[in-house]
Every structure is written in structure tokens, then in C-alpha cells.
Amino acid sequence: MNIVALQWDLAWEDRSANFATVRRLLDSAPPAPGSLVILPEMFATGFTMNVEVAREPSPSPVEAFLSEIARGHQVALLAGLASGFPGARPRNEAVFVNPEGRIVSRYAKRQPFSPSGEAALFEAGGASVVLEWAGFQVSPLVCYDLRFPELFREAVAQGAEVLVVIANWPSKRAEHWVTLLRARAIENQAYVVGVNRCGRDPGFPYPGRSIVVDPHGDIVADAGAGETALKASLDREALVQWRRDFPALRDRRASSCPS
To answer: Is the dihedral of CA 58, 61, 67, 72 positive or negative?
Structure first.
């Protein structure tokens, strides 16, 4: 599977500017048809707690844009947005769009970030999502989810082989970002793709460091600190062989607690 991770300085609460950057990055380095193109968490607005700005209206301009890009480049897209269900709190979602431009899956962030107030403003998701793309089983997660290894283990128990974390992860915790992504890959014998923003918003600077980690925990692609379209190719046979040769997932035992 070919991965294209887009990393840039998200324009704060400005959908049109972010749409233009995505178009420019993909036009300057066109992805191969059938690639999985990944955009950061809440890519169209930044990680704003202004719910009325973040929430997608109906019809959704972000969903229409993603559909256009997927069809135009004949790729799948995984991207972050705030859903806009009327009368309810929005959900911080990762949506999967197929090359026909249809949203075929939605994952809602299960661990809203309480220090920012997100947990009070956004509804938490309730279940893992695992979907098939290019011969792999793929599971999306969102930012703060990364600190909760049980969410990753749950996805792997459902068959996940590629764990994709989209984020707005700040510079002051950049080492945690890299360390936790590598740990999730090692313990789950899975590819882990972390897609972060760079630049800064009104509150924080962001380090970039979108990376692709192989099932051994080795970083095989690293976007560094600036704007880029990071590309990598994932080898499913290598993943399957490692799980076969070193069967840690097979050997795991159910935990038990005293009643």
C-alpha cells in the first residue's frame, strides 16, 4: 500500500486556505492512483474549541472537498473533521473516503482531550473501526487516543494491521509523540502512521514529525518539521511474516481481575 501523509501549517479556522494547500501539495507531487492520502486531525480549521466554527454544516463543505479530491486523484482519503449532527455535540472524526468520492467509514475520537476542554464540547466515540484498503486492514485513531494503548489492542484484536493516528500534537510533547507511535507499532506488530501538523496556532507551536513506523518499531519515513507530502510504501508480507516468526499477539493471554 502506498501512503501519502500531508503535513502543513494549518490555517486557523480557514477552510478555503486549507483546501488550497491540500490541492497544491497533491498537484505538486501527484499520488499514485489507489494510494491512501492522510490529512491531520480537523485539517480544515485547526484544533479549535470554537464549536460553531469547527462543526460542519449540512451539506458539509469539507466532505464535498474530500469527495472532489478523492475522485480527481483516484485515491482513498483519511482525514479529520468535526461532524455536524444538528442538536448534538459534534464528534471529532476521522472519515475514510473511497476513490469514487463516497465516505465509507467514520471513526469518532474516543478520548477527547480534557485539558483543552474538548471532552466537554465534543461527544466521545464508542467503538473501533477497521476497514480494508489495498490488501491491508486499517484502523484510524485521533490524537489523544495515542496515550491509551487499549484502544490500539482492541483494533488489532479486530484484525487491524495498519494503525493511523491523525493529530494536532504540540511541540512541547513531541518526544512523547514519536515514542508512543513507536511503542504502539512494537507492541501490536503493526504499521503505525502518525500524521501531525506543523507551524503554530493561537495557542501552541507544532513539530510536524509525521512518521511511518514499521512493525519492528523502526521509523521508515519521517516528514521532519516543515510542509511536505510524505510518501511511504507498506509491505504486508513482511508484517505477516514477523507476526508468524515472533507470535507475541498469538501468545497474549486475557487479563483477569479479582472479583
So the answer is: positive
Q: Let me know if residue 127 belongs to a domain.
A: yes
Q: Tell me how far CA of residue 42 lies from CA of 23, 86, 102, 195, 218, in angstroms.
A: 17, 19, 19, 12, 27
Residues designated as active site: 41, 109, 143
Which three cell numbers, joined as nine digits, stand for 93?
472524526
**Residue 78's domain spans which residues?**
2-247
Distances (CA, A) of 178 to 43, 183, 196, 201: 20, 9, 11, 21
Do residues 58 and 36 touch, judged by C-beta distance below 8 A?
Answer: no
Q: Is residue 98 part of a domain?
A: yes
In the chain, how many domains are there? 1
Residue with cell 507470535: 247
| 45 lies in some domain | yes
**CATH number, position 230:** 3.60.110.10
pLDDT digit string (tens) for the chain, length 259 residues: 999 999 999 999 999 999 999 999 999 999 999 999 999 999 999 999 999 999 999 899 999 999 999 999 999 999 999 998 777 899 999 999 999 999 999 999 999 999 999 999 999 999 999 999 999 999 999 999 999 999 999 999 999 999 999 999 999 999 999 999 999 999 999 999 999 999 999 999 999 999 999 999 999 999 999 999 999 999 999 999 999 999 999 999 876 444 3
Residue 79 lies in a domain: yes
Global model pTM greater than 0.90: yes
Using alpha carbons, list the distances in angstroms from residue 232 to 3, 124, 132, 259. Answer: 5, 31, 18, 47
